[in-house]
Design a protein that fits this description.
Elements lengths: L4 H8 L3 H8 L2 H10 L5 E5 L2 E4 L4 E4 L2 H4 L8 H13 L11 H11 L7 E5 L2 H16 L3 E5 L8 H4 L5 H4 L9 E4 L4 H8 L4 E6 L2 E2 L4 E2 L4 H12 L2 E5 L23 E4 L11 E5 L1 H7 L17 H16 L2 H20 L5 E7 L2 E6 L5 H13 L4 H13 L1 E2 L1 E2 L6 E4 L7 H19 L4 H18 L1
Parallel strand pairs: 3-15, 5-6, 5-7, 7-10, 10-11
Antiparallel strand pairs: 1-2, 2-3, 4-12, 8-9, 11-12, 13-14, 14-17, 16-17
Helix pairs in contact: 2-3, 5-13, 6-13, 7-12, 10-11, 14-17, 16-17, 16-18
Length: 461
């Protein structure tokens, strides 16, 4: 008898938190319950989520950028059904799939200076692959990366992670990984001038904090890398595929990396897939003989479901003008949120490109607000942002979160299909919540509760 997935979901959706507490990550369940996010989502379509009571939410996380074209897009579902119905000879291994070849060909149209593609299962796997490609191509072992960077959580990627919270307790990283500060060209040149660095990994816009490259930074990065024989690796796992209003974020700065990494949005939201785009000479250094044809790979990387999802996603991007919508809606949302900065002293900066936007908060100057802020900061640095995200969620049905551990920035990463009405919904919700904070309203009571939890966690930790 065939398994009925819909019945299983419906039957057990009410005890999902018990299941996860007993068999998966109990601490994640505790987090959700503490901040009131345990609403039991049961349905999703496009940019919207619905909980078990039928309430509608606007999703500004999009699965950390996975759902660029929205959730459950019919074109992606149809492509996956077609693969299953066709009974294709998937993952024969001692053969190659035409779908993988077609997806590679179509991806390279967006970066014509690239010539080869290597497929993986995730963004982290593309980083791991790029480390190996860079070392093989240059004969060097050192890798340079930026402070506050996030490139993934497997050991190679973690070795390039600039956030202590992810590294602590996992020491024993790759040898000779050199951290330099983002946007610091003298530090980068100091790291590269010994001519032993295989590659410099950089996000055009850092996901942790929504930190944007200076106007000439990436152009100078490219020049320095070429000067010292270091490969320039652009991690576009989050910024790529239209997120910033261009298909690749590096297009804003007119640079052409040696290796370009994408994942997340390429999947269409259902089947994990990542891709390494690179130059032929680099690719050929790794796969340089027939006996090295399998020197690097991944069992499921070129599976037909993932390739079909990627092809369908690119088709949707082109047919629905996804990148153009991201640019237009991003500009409108930035304008609306920037206007709030003029009226509310708690907002320090609004920054971003396209629909990757950060709203950063900072210490106020007026006496009462300053005292309240200082008390909250004494309990836990960066706690203020949760005083904004929780009311946004509970009262305005906006799903958003901070841009990193201890961050003062809320990152907006909505599906790229949002509308003018959605932008108004976001801006109105932010204004109402921030206005209450400025008036020392109920959100400060929430702050005291959160501070209490933080202090208790510190004692028991």
């Amino acid at each position: 008898m065939p398994i009925n997935i819909q019945s299983l979901f419906t039957e057990h959706e009410g005890n999902r938190y018990d299941l996860h507490t007993h068999y998966l990550n109990e601490q994640m369940v505790r987090v959700l319950k503490t901040i009131g996010y345990n609403v039991r989502f049961t349905k999703a379509s496009g940019q919207y989520l619905h909980d078990h009571s039928g309430a509608k939410y606007l999703d500004l996380l999009s699965g950390w950028g996975v759902f660029a074209i929205g959730r459950n897009h019919p074109a992606i579902k149809d492509a996956l059904h077609q693969v299953l119905d066709a009974e294709l000879p998937n993952l024969v291994q001692m053969d190659v799939s035409p779908l993988a070849g077609l997806l590679a060909k179509r991806l390279l149209r967006y970066a014509p200076y690239m010539e080869k593609v290597f497929f993986a299962n995730s963004g982290t796997e593309t980083v791991e692959a790029a480390i190996k490609f860079a070392r093989a191509a240059t004969g060097r072992s050192a890798i340079a990366y930026c402070g506050h960077a996030f490139h993934g959580l497997s050991y190679g990627a973690l070795s390039l992670n600039g956030d202590t919270i992810f590294r602590q307790g996992f020491e024993g990283f790759l040898n000779d990984c050199r951290q330099v500060q983002f946007n610091d060209l003298p530090a980068l040149e100091a790291a590269l001038k010994s001519r032993d660095v295989a590659a410099f990994f950089v996000e055009p816009i850092q996901g942790k904090g929504v930190n944007i490259s200076d106007d000439t930074y990436l152009q100078e990065v490219q020049a320095l890398c070429r000067k010292y024989g270091t490969l320039f690796v652009a991690d576009e796992i989050q910024t790529g595929m239209g997120r910033t209003g261009r298909f690749f974020a590096v297009e804003h700065w007119n640079v052409e990396p040696d290796i370009l990494l994408i994942a997340k949005a390429l999947s269409g939201g259902h089947i994990p897939v990542g891709a390494v785009l690179t130059r032929k000479w680099i690719f050929d250094k790794l796969f340089n003989r027939m006996d090295r044809a399998v020197v690097h790979g991944s069992t499921f990387a070129k599976n037909d479901m993932a390739m079909a999802a990627g092809l369908a996603t690119l088709a949707v991007f082109e047919e629905e003008n996804i990148v153009r919508n991201a640019a237009i809606m991003g500009a409108r949302l930035m304008e609306k949120l920037s206007a709030l900065k003029q009226r509310y002293e708690l907002i320090k900066e609004v920054r971003g490109k396209g629909l990757m936007i950060g709203v950063e908060f900072g210490a106020p100057t007026s006496l009462k607000l300053k005292m309240a802020w200082s008390a909250l900061e004494a309990a836990n640095a960066g706690l203020f942002c949760q005083m904004i995200t929780i009311p946004l969620f509970k009262e305005h049905k906006i799903l958003a979160q901070v841009a990193g551990h201890g961050s003062y920035t809320i990152k907006l990463l909505p599906p790229l299909i949002i509308t003018e009405d959605d932008c108004n919904w976001i801006a109105g919700a932010f204004e109402a919540t921030i206005a209450e904070a400025h008036n020392l309203g109920a959100v400060w009571s929430l702050g005291k509760t959160l501070a209490g939890h933080a202090l208790q966690a510190r004692k028991t930790g």
